[in-house]
Amino acid sequence: MKTGLIEVICGPMFSGKTSELVRQIQLSLISKIEVVAFKPKIDNRYESDKICTNDGYCVKSIVIDDSKEIIDYVNKSSKKIEKVFIDEAQFFDEKIVEVVDYLAKNKGIDVILAGLDQDFKGAPFGQMPKLLGLAQKIRTLTAICVHEKEDGCICRKPAYFTQRLIDGKPAKFNSPIILVDGINSYTARCEDHWEVPERPEKEL
User: Fold this and answer.
1) Radius of gyration of the chain from Cα atoms?
2) Minimal CA–CA distance to 102: which of 126, 73, 122, 145?
3) How confident is the model at residue 51 (pLDDT cuts 50, 70, 90)?
4) DSSP 66
């Protein structure tokens, strides 16, 4: 039996991670490949039972609390699942790493995940570092910095960071890590314009 391919699509918010995941789902369906898509229950921004892009395009998905539910679903399925798609991978529990590894090595299933590699503080997010270590294929996407400069122009540099906003201002370092929201509370920023007020200075 072949070993499945593990692919991780990562980057900041508004970089098109979910759009790329949805694109791959659609291509697989056109190719008559048996697929199943999962999302964490915490992601309730748009349709509750669908994976949706920020511009409103959605595909059917299964909502789960525990990552081991993915294995249960695959094992109980009457169809031979060939690809598993997982959105918002940073929100899953630590067992997601074992689940992905099992699906690829023991079931021969290709697993494609999308998620934030860093939180708004610039720290590794959840289990993403371990998932990136497992992956044979990594696709890192960038957004566009939409910070408005003093001259009124938009920056437009490649954005590698997710900027959390509270009342339109950068969120302080001690703000909660997880705040599930879309356009209202987040934007994308380049390194020059990404801000985390009260972020401790690192000492070497």
Assistant:
1) 18
2) 73
3) confident
4) S
Q: What is the pLDDT of residues 98-147, one digit of tens each?
A: 999 999 999 999 999 999 999 999 999 999 999 999 999 999 999 999 99
How buried is residue 23: exposed, middle or buried, by Cβ count under 10 Å (0-12/13-18/19+)? Answer: middle
- Name the percent of the chain in helix, strand, coil, to the closest 5: 20, 25, 50
- The structure's pTM equals 0.91
- What tokens appear for 183 in the block? 């356009």
**Closest by Cα among 13, 22, 11, 20 to 141:** 11
CA atoms within 13 A on the CB side of 42: 14
Q: Which residues pair with 9 in a beta bridge?
A: 114, 139
* Paired strand residues for 138: 8
Q: Which two tokens stand for residue 152?
A: 């009124």
Which residues does the annotation mark as catalytic? 88
